[in-house]
Structures
1.
Amino acid sequence: MLTPYRLGLLVLLVVVATTPFWAPLGLRRLDRFNVERVEVVGTRIMAPHEVLAVSGISAGANVWNSPRAWETALTRHPVVDEASITRRLPGTLVIRIRESRPAGLVDSGTLRLVSVEGTMLPVDLSRVPVDLPLLRTRGLAGTQARRVWAESGYLSQLDQALWARVSEVAAGPGGALMLRTGRPDAQVLLPPGATALQLRQLRSTLDYLARQPRPDGSAPARVDLRWEDQVVISAPTR
């Protein structure tokens, strides 16, 4: 059953939908459309309250205010690649975020999160649980370091389950990427731009090595996938 309040609101929404484009200018003065709730969608690194603070949406804002200034403020933040804000009448704003893709952790005196574009992301690692490998790029030239970051981000998206087994990443010979895995303990050489097939081959190889007996104190196994259609394995030795 429609109460007088709901009936009045329904009539108002119908009027809004059928009035000229300049109508929201007048609706901004109505307290009924003041922002009462803000929903944040799409974040993994940033906390919702951080998104709200960065946006600049303040008490007394109206859902009919133009969201452009809020969206611009959000996209200036290093963690945010894209931001859009939509309204859900009568009093809700929905912020949709696409965050920068993290490549891994780098040691610059303290551990910091770096994006695939090479941007240091201002993230409190004590608050955000991050399961990403350590990227050993300290001392590399800028172009080499960025290549490692970009390749790491690419591989993490290509096979997230495999990437969860990687503990360290470094630059290898000839532009290759050198990975260190912990389950099993292995050193892996991947060519630049490794394919999904090569990652499936690597996963199968690691599963095989994990089932093999391992001598105590032995060096890590070596796995080389730089050659087309073959995987070269050097078993662990003392």
2.
Amino acid sequence: MAMEVHRKLTADSSPRLRNGETGDCIGTFEGHKGAVWSCCLDTNALRAASASADFTAKLWDALTGDELDSFEHKHIVRACAFSVDTHLLLTGGVEKILRIFDLNHPDVPPREVESSPGSIRTVAWLHSDQTILRNLYCGNFSSRNLLVTLFGLVKSYNMPCNVESASLEPKLGNKFVAGVEDMWIHIFDFNTGEQIGCNKGHHSPVHCVRFSPGGESCASGSEDRTIRIWQTGPANLEENGPTGKLKASALP
């Protein structure tokens, strides 16, 4: 069962399931007809979801690789995330709309939370599935991170650079990480929005970052074809402030 806990997904046009400790490929999910922008596992690592340029988000059996459902959209789907209880799937993309699919009733039309001011690049569930984190591209190289409850906006950050992905620390909720086009993983204070650290190591833009469930580490995926896992516990003080230790790096 250790492999179940440490699984992670990588993707191009076919999402790949990998062992999180070794980086070894376990299997692939075949079915998308376009590039896959985002993929994730549910809490129990029994199902996977993927968001694609073929205007669909797909649900997969993580053990067999079988396609379970396909959810049609009207434009490119850039992001997807399971709720903690695994009953809901959240998607977002170029349509600028957040959609929530009930996986217990996949034929029922999704709930649309609200229209966004920009293309959605990242989504995540927070606070017992009552809050959504989304990262937007608003044009002219500007990005915003927004926290939205199911009833309205909680917090908004105007970022100093073009953000590709963001993830909130799940245990204390006092910081968040962002992957950006400058190849670094930036760490920000949740309350003030000020940068408090920076992890360096990638050689191309970082398109995906995600905290582990316990918040003790975060993973980053880059155009340099590596996935890096960073320790986010006790920080090392370096020239540019607190920087997490690199725990592991995996090639495709």
3.
Amino acid sequence: MEIDAHIEALRRAGDALLAVAAETPWSAEVPSCPGWRLEDLVRHLGNVHRWAERIVRERLAERVPLPEADPSGAALAGWFSEGLDALEATLRAADDDLDCFVFLPGATGARAFWARRQAHETTVHLMDAQLAAKRALSGVPVALALDGIDELLTGFHARPRSRVRAPEPRVLAVQGDEGGRWTTRLSEEPPSTVREAATRFDCRISGPAAALYATLWNRADHREAPVRWEGDARVMELWRARATV
């Protein structure tokens, strides 16, 4: 996906989240984020937006602490909207050769990294808000869904901090109906993923890209989402238990 497409996805998801919040009590529990209520979710995402915006705007070379702003009640929606506006504007104005802190392996440029990361950060948390509101998850566009699966498998879970570890080697194959093939090797080390179809696997999960996106980001249960899986069920149970982001 192009940078502009990621920025547009960020904007759409942020606006959609605000629309859900406008019709849902701030006290609604977020089942996909145990211990959080909707106001905690929106406050967290608003602080993440401000954190990312500062890193890009100031071209910071190292990680800085996440802000701890604590708005609540009637002020929360406006505060969130201001942060979303600022992040969008800063990403649009940034140079393509921006050099600043990034935190996932394989980043091809800081501006592209932050546009992509915040598009998926906001899209995944939109799903959290919809779950809090007891709504059906809105469909994620195919290109964005495939891109987000790729970020999750080749970025987040390629890091040493990934908790997805298997006592014995296992291979998870991921296959989107609209395209996209990944082979993820699980072991006692961090997962290793290549962008190709598996010739042999212990478990394979396949289906529409949007459903795979929700399932692999652990916002939908693989036993209930419109996905198909075959092979060793323990691999999917391991993913559901440990692939939390």
4.
Amino acid sequence: MTNLEPEGFVWPDPAAFYVDVVKVPDPETVKYRVHLDLATTSAAHQAELVARLKELGATPADVGQGDVPWTVLADPEGNVFCVLEPREIYRDTGPIAAVVVDCADPRAMARFWGEAIDWTLHEVTDDHATLRSAKGVGPYLEFLRTTPGAKTVSTRVHLDLLPNPVDDQAAEVARLQTLGATPADVGQGDVSWMVLADPEGNQFCVLGRA
């Protein structure tokens, strides 16, 4: 596993966003439900970022997006992500604008995740929902209405939740289950974290003390 985090990161800090890259045996063979959107500050910045990412090994990806102002790329293992055109809403998110989840019911997902992580609901329609930390910092969590079909594979991008204090893992798991989460088995074995699935089957983890 490789951990990427901001310099000077001190938990809990809602403005901090860090990524764990975990080795798994299965390559990406389908379009997964969860992806990252990267923020840019100008058209020039978007073009420069796309060029730099291609130099690092990213490749153009076609997920049926058509003629849109953002650029869809795939990392060297095929994980799709987007480099957005400048948008005012993402001016202060840092490099990651949003974690985006394809779903069947954005309203239901916003209700679950809003209560699960106590984030503020900024927008909700039948087609789209947007949440962000109550402190108004860091990336957004967004839900887009699609027709994803039955979920048959594990999610390659997922959220890890860390209870505060971390020793309250069992209580947090119980609380999330009352909201509609269910236990999930992704072959994790005997580990310090608990794997759950949200009401649409997207896996996430509740971390504990290692």
